[in-house]
Design brief:
Layout: H1 2-27, E1 38-43, H2 48-52, H3 54-63, E2 68-75, H4 85-97, E3 101-107, H5 113-124, E4 136-140, H6 149-167, E5 173-178, H7 180-185, H8 195-199, E6 204-209, H9 218-236, E7 244-248, H10 255-268, E8 273-277, H11 284-289
Parallel strand pairs: 1-2, 1-8, 2-3, 3-4, 4-5, 5-6, 6-7, 7-8
Helix pairs in contact: 1-9, 3-4, 5-6, 9-10
Length: 297
């Protein structure tokens, strides 16, 4: 019953937003967002095995049915713009050789805006030993290192505008954002989160919908993630906004909850892609549960 109510809430939100969204979608020609589609997985700068055994890790990821790997290049606390560039390049080459797509992501702190921009562009412009590059870039908009929310938001938007201007309109940019439901439950974390402003600058939203921080059990997992999607679509004003839904975290999830997450993916029917964070913590049973079943009527 909870799942049916959640589906109804999503449907109601979609119906309200349809008219305005059609105008917005016609006004903005979408770049190719295929790199964000399908089953994904995540590798952070702390995934040492990806650097030491790139071919083996790429083969193992492929065997799980993954289409895209989201690879972190750095974060605001690191001393370098790109962490271990030679090993990173070998890993990206291995992913491409295995038929996988690789999307770079960087976590800015918004404390040093010029450094954040430089590091984001370093990921966009990164070249592998074989001359390859990432298939896309996503900015991780989650840090609360800047405590003044108004200043944090203004810096997020300024950085995002600079990034968009640098890559051009045809480059598919992703916005990794905190869980919309999580921000609803803890409003002091980021009041008035700038969903609509970000939608003008980014082509795909990747909400880090870590239900394990707030709820337990399949029904609660389903309802939590459904609510996040409803909040995001309503705030953006577009039920068709491309979304790659990220669940987890995998160190705390259970297969039954992952199955509920996958059921939501199937029932929703409009998501560009889905994944759990992160690859190295995802257990075999969880990979099986991540395959979306037939949608419930």
């Amino acid at each position: 019953m909870r799942r049916l109510l959640a589906i109804g809430a999503v449907a109601a939100t979609v119906a309200v937003a349809v008219a305005g969204s059609h105008i917005a979608s016609r006004a903005k020609a979408m770049p190719d967002v295929s790199a964000y589609e399908g089953l994904g997985t995540w590798v952070s700068i702390f995934g040492a095995k990806a650097y030491s055994q790139p071919d083996a890790v790429a083969a193992a990821i492929t065997a799980r049915g993954v289409k895209t790997v989201y690879v972190q290049t750095s974060n605001f606390s690191q001393p370098t713009d790109v962490v271990k560039p030679e090993q990173l390049g070998a890993f990206v080459d291995a992913l491409h050789a295995a038929g996988l797509r690789a999307v770079a992501w960087y976590l800015p702190g918004f404390v040093k805006p010029a450094v954040d921009l430089r590091r984001a562009l370093a990921a966009v412009q990164f070249k592998t030993p074989q001359g390859g590059s990432f298939d896309g870039f996503a900015l991780d908009i989650e840090s609360s290192a800047v405590k003044r929310v108004g200043l944090r938001t203004s810096r997020v938007l300024a950085l995002s505008r600079q990034l968009r201007n640098a890559v051009g309109t045809n480059y598919a940019l992703g916005a990794i954002i905190p869980s919309p439901r999580g921000m609803e439950l803890v409003p002091k974390y980021w009041p008035s989160f700038p969903y609509a402003d970000l939608a003008k600058l980014y082509d795909v939203f990747l909400p880090m919908d870590y239900w394990t921080f707030s709820v337990k059990g399949p029904d609660a997992t389903y309802g939590y993630t459904a609510r996040s999607l409803a909040i995001l679509r309503q705030a953006v004003g577009n039920p068709n906004v491309p979304i790659h839904l990220v669940g987890g975290t995998t160190g705390q999830t259970k297969a039954a909850d992952d199955a509920a997450f996958a059921q939501l993916v199937a029932d929703d029917g409009h998501l560009a892609g889905w994944s759990l964070f992160d690859y190295f913590a995802t257990k075999p049973a969880e990979w099986k549960a991540l395959v979306p079943p037939v949608a419930q009527s």
